[in-house]
Amino acid sequence: MKQKFHLISLLLLVFLAVGLVAPATPVNAQAAKYHFVMISHIGTNDPNELWLTFAIADFQKRYPDVKIDYQATTTSNIEDLVSLAKQVIATKPDGIAIPILATDPLDSVLRDAVTKQGIPVVAFNVKDGRAADKRIPYLAYVGGDELQVGIQMGNELLAAAKAGTIPAPKAAVCADWDPSHQGLTARCKGFGDTLAAANIKSEVLTISQTQADAQTTMESYLQGHTDVNVIFAVTAGSAPWMWHAANDLKLNPDVGKGLTVLSVDESPVTLEGVKQGHLLATHSQGFYLQGYVPFELLYWNKQLGYKPFTDVLTGPIIIDKSNIDSWIPFTKNIFGATYDKLAQGQWQ
Predict the structure, then answer these.
(1) Structural domains in the chain?
(2) How does pLDDT run across 192-214, given as a tens digit for each residue?
(3) Is there a contact between 308 and 245 (Cβ–Cβ < 8 Å)?
(4) Residue 7 has what pLDDT?
């Protein structure tokens, strides 16, 4: 069943929760007692960074005795993330939040930080998918269920086809620009498994993280797979690239006309794609909560000895034509004038 939440209810829960913890106090009103670091693969080239840094700024207003540094790589390259993690750990912060992009490369680094150096870790955005007794010993995971992202997007596609909103899917391709990113892999798997259960073939295509190469790859694929009439772009930035690839081939990639495109995240690019009828749907993984809750867990752990009993799932929330007019102003409140700059020209 497609997961949807009332936007206003979600916001009330978020802000009531953070509002009850501590009164808002200006940053730097007192000396920092704890130094936390968010190590991220979401850098300045990714608009989703604004969600995380906005949430971190909110947290520091309410917890003036905490200093948080946001350090990110420029791409989702796992080697760069491991290198950055080692550099941060060497500074001995009081706590770390980090996405588990790939389990094996990060395991020994983070396990050593936790068990030998006593640095608490919270995973965010991407989890270690192994059983609790096998996974990296972090306090908890805060983020979306990436397998469910693919499943819910598959269900959205099938429901739209059943309603006659889009042409019946014949075959699909999942466009993934980083196969080493296990969250993206999970999105493709959930999507493919859901379509397979409906007897619809789906394949994964590795594309580049640069627009020209990605479009060329997709165009070549579509020319060789003429039965494909669905593209799932599992990163927000690649969504307009995939649309342009199909549009260049005159496959009518707008909702209800020909080839159907779906993507991810509450990014200005994908939100405008839904609003303008280029994308059937996108989703939210609760980026604000991913930027705020990890540090609350770290703070409570350091200050109160708290150890979470469960992970904190923040998504997915499906965004389509039924709720897009709520998500755009909500997102503009975070991005400000940057919203229009990021979306401008992407779909032209």
Answers:
(1) 7-145+285-317 (3.40.50.2300), 146-284 (3.40.50.2300)
(2) 999 999 999 999 999 999 999 99
(3) no
(4) 37
